[in-house]
Specification:
The chain is 40% helix and 13% strand. The chain has a single domain, classed as Alpha-Beta Barrel (TIM Barrel), CATH 3.20.20.370. The chain is α/β, with parallel strands linked by helices and 276 residues long. The two termini are 24 Å apart. Strands 1, 4, 5, 6, 7 and 11 form a 6-stranded parallel beta sheet that branches. Strands 8-9-10 form a 3-stranded parallel beta sheet, covered by helices on one side. It has 10 helices and 11 strands. It is globular, with a radius of gyration of 19 Å. Bound molecules: zinc ion. The site of zinc ion has 5 residues, from loops.
Length: 276
């Protein structure tokens, strides 16, 4: 009943034109809401959960992105940030972490909708039968072979690094962190014959990356680093960029409201009274 009421309010808000008006006012007043969204599993092999969306949901997400958002390759998002350019309304970049074999199908779906994405790979597990500890007990989900990653690249997607061994950079020493950063980059560049510019650190929380490793990542040659801490990417942001893990909301209407920045006032209100 509550979710029905919420869906009705969201629909009224959108279809009355209030949402578009609010967005325009925010844009005119200089507020920007760029997002980097993060997927983990796009599969029908296991039930949907906080890390998993079905192929049907993903298709609907792609339609929403094509019809209502400005999806850009990471290169373009980075260029806008670097040059201080004003991003168009509803600018979004799409990313994936880990090396599930289902990603090749997701990459083809994205290409069908002409949506570019970046896939962050833990290079040590590509082409292996490694099972991630958090997947123990779930139906077996194979890992991508290099041939699929090459196909994903040829479809127009970018490949970034997610370390070699999916290491927690919040706990490992600097020498090991350097190897994780440098070796994964080198492996990807050797295998794919393209420069690797982006890095997403595993586990993604604030505690999973030591601040002193950011200069290390830059020294190794990465131009941008990504967490999985949610939030909007602001034009003046440097350092580690936030990402919103999908499905942030299972309702696409609710997700649209969120990514367009229209719920920001609500989050701020909740923050003020200590609910966020
Ligand atoms: Zn990961």
């Amino acid at each position: 009943m509550r979710s029905f009421a919420r869906a009705t309010i969201c629909a009224l808000y959108k279809y009355s034109g209030l949402m578009a008006l609010q967005e325009r006012i925010a844009y005119w007043s200089g507020r920007r809401f760029m997002s980097v969204v993060l997927f983990h599993r796009v599969t029908d092999a296991i039930p949907e959960d906080d890390l998993t969306v079905s192929t049907e949901w993903f298709k609907s997400f792609c339609e929403l992105m094509r019809d209502r958002f400005n999806v850009v390759p990471m290169t373009q998002l980075y260029r806008m940030l670097n040059k201080g350019q004003t991003p168009p309304m509803r600018t979004v970049a799409i990313t994936f972490d880990d090396c599930y074999r289902d990603y090749v199908a997701a990459a083809r779906t994205l290409a069908h909708y002409k949506l570019p994405a970046t896939f962050f790979m833990p290079t040590g597990y590509v082409g292996t039968d490694h099972v991630f500890p958090w997947d123990a007990g779930l139906k077996r989900m194979p890992n991508l072979p290099w041939s699929d990653i090459r196909e994903m690249q040829s479809l127009g997607h970018e490949i970034g690094s997610h370390t070699v061994t999916h290491a927690d950079l919040g706990v490992i020493p600097a020498a090991k962190a350097r190897r994780e950063l440098a070796d994964s980059k080198k492996t990807l560049e050797d295998r794919l014959q393209r420069p690797v510019r982006w890095f997403a650190y595993p586990f993604g929380g604030k505690e999973n990356f030591r601040p002193e490793y950011l200069p290390l990542a830059q020294e190794v040659g990465y131009e941008a680093c990504f967490s999985a801490v949610s939030g909007f990417v602001q034009p003046q942001m440097r350092g580690i960029l936030p990402r919103d893990a999908m499905p942030y909301f299972r309702s696409l209407l609710h997700l649209e409201l969120h990514l367009s920045g229209c719920l920001d006032w609500w989050y701020n209100a909740k923050r003020r009274v200590g609910l966020l």
